[in-house]
Write a structure and sequence with these properties.
binds S-adenosylmethionine, two-stranded antiparallel ribbon
Length: about 425
């Protein structure tokens, strides 16, 4: 049995530390999967790619990669992490952004800011904006966002700066009036002194340039990667085109990526091409979401099998809480569709590695790994190997979810399926 616990390993090498992301997969786990189940030049797919760990490892290891995620911010982060960017262009554009932004911030702090600067410093409207962002911080963020958006640069460089911008907000030491945003509920926490947004941005850009340089040095020649907004239940890929799937899907309930991301997305609406309202509405569509309408009546979904683990868990849950049973059923039927798509695009005899975590809902054990193995069979995905690993809770789970998951959240399953016989 391979040792798949990577607690003492550095998980932030190359571009893996470019931006925080909840429930990130350790890169060493993706590396293990890619090393043993694909070859150089193969195409690897991660249909729920999050911040792009699989894609980064694929490029480092000389595999082509395709990634999809339903979350536009995830797509932006993953693209930048797996693409890298030419440092000379970053340096040149950054000098320009920094100069103009510094000039505007000084002007904004003067007794009578010029009208043009005041327009550039106009922050977007969103609920409770002034609660989460001090006005000085909001002005500086708006100015930065303006210059990132309006100065001439390539798309790759613009996206690099947008990720640097987002990382000012979604981080342990956010410039917002909140701490450790990505890993917890947004608890209000007022800074003693308004943070220096431009200074922090400068530090982020410097660090990211070093990380990208390390990534580019390590990249294998010729490996291409593509990251797109998409739904794992309806992949825009042709049949039998993928050599390996490596993915860690969302947990069965309660992970709410839009809630974790909205303070950054509020500033990036134009860049991401989505309004905050639409972004939050779409949250109900994420696999494992606790939002969205549930059917009024609870009825067991026949596609999940009448006598299998899924139906027995859902029936038990229904006795304790019909709404939790409906949510769990929605999760399993979403995962069933995602498995169907994985099977469709995977080449015959090739592998799909799915990293999942069992949970407890209302003290009822939900063995997600067993359910996925049963559902996989219905799509001609046979379990070849199953390993367990211990997850570092601090890294993998949002603390506020521990209540819903209960104590056993520390074991994760690495399921290795093969398509066909
Ligand atoms: C556990 S995270 C993946 C983390 C990733 N392995 C990493 O290291 O960053 C699960 C991802 O599934 C995405 N997701 C949820 N529903 C989806 C769907 N229907 N289609 C594609 N992605 C989805 C979430 O946005 C989230 O980024």
């Amino acid at each position: 049995m391979p040792d798949l616990n990577f607690d003492s390993h550095n998980t932030l090498y190359a571009t893996h530390g470019l931006h925080a992301y909840a429930a990130k997969c350790p890169p060493q786990l993706a590396r293990y999967g890619l090393r043993y189940y694909s070859r150089s030049g193969d195409t690897v797919l991660d249909p729920m790619a999050g911040s792009g760990t699989t894609l980064v490892e694929a490029r480092l290891m000389g595999r082509h990669s395709r990634g999809y995620d339903i979350d536009p911010l995830a797509c932006l982060i993953a693209r930048v992490k797996a693409r890298g960017v030419r440092d000379a262009e970053v340096e040149e554009v950054y000098a320009d952004i920094a100069r103009h932004a510094a000039r505007d911030v000084v002007a904004m702090n003067s007794p009578r800011p010029p009208a043009a600067v005041a327009r550039r410093a106009a922050p977007p409207e969103f609920t409770n904006r002034d609660y989460w962002f001090d006005s000085e911080v909001a002005d500086a963020l708006a100015i930065l966002a303006y210059h990132i958006r309006h100065r001439a640069m390539s798309r790759a460089v613009r996206e690099f700066f947008l990720v640097a911008f987002s990382s000012l907000i979604l981080s342990k030491t956010s410039v917002a009036n909140a701490r450790d945003i990505i890993h917890s509920r947004h608890h209000y926490w007022r800074h003693e002194r308004s943070p220096d947004v431009l200074g922090k941005f400068d530090a982020r850009v410097r660090l990211m340039r070093r990380q990208v340089a390390e990534f580019r040095d390590g990249c294998a020649a010729g490996a291409r990667s593509e990251m797109r907004l998409g739904d794992a239940r309806r992949l825009r890929l042709r049949e039998e085109t993928i050599d390996l799937v490596f993915t860690s899907p969302p947990y069965a309930t309660a992970l709410d990526y839009p809630r974790a991301h909205f303070l950054a997305v509020a500033w990036l609406q134009a860049a991401l091409g989505v309004s905050l309202e639409d972004y939050l509405t779409k949250a109900a569509d994420y696999i494992g979401s606790v939002r969205g309408r549930l059917p009024t009546e609870f009825q067991l979904d026949p596609r999940l099998g009448r006598n299998g683990t899924a139906s027995s868990v859902i029936t038990r849950l229904a006795a304790a809480s019909p709404s939790q049973a409906k949510r769990a059923q929605r999760y399993f039927s979403d995962m069933d569709q995602a498995l169907g798509e994985i099977a469709r695009v995977l080449k015959h005899r090739r592998h799909a590695i799915i990293v999942v975590c069992p949970s407890h809902i209302r003290k009822i054990a939900v063995p997600t790994q067993e359910v996925l193995v049963e559902l996989g069979r219905g799509h001609d995905l046979r379990l070849k190997k199953s390993y367990t690993r211990t997850i570092n809770e601090r890294r993998r789970i949002l603390p506020y979810l521990q209540e819903s998951f209960g104590k056993r959240m520390d074991t994760e399953y690495v399921l290795i399926f093969q398509k066909g016989r």
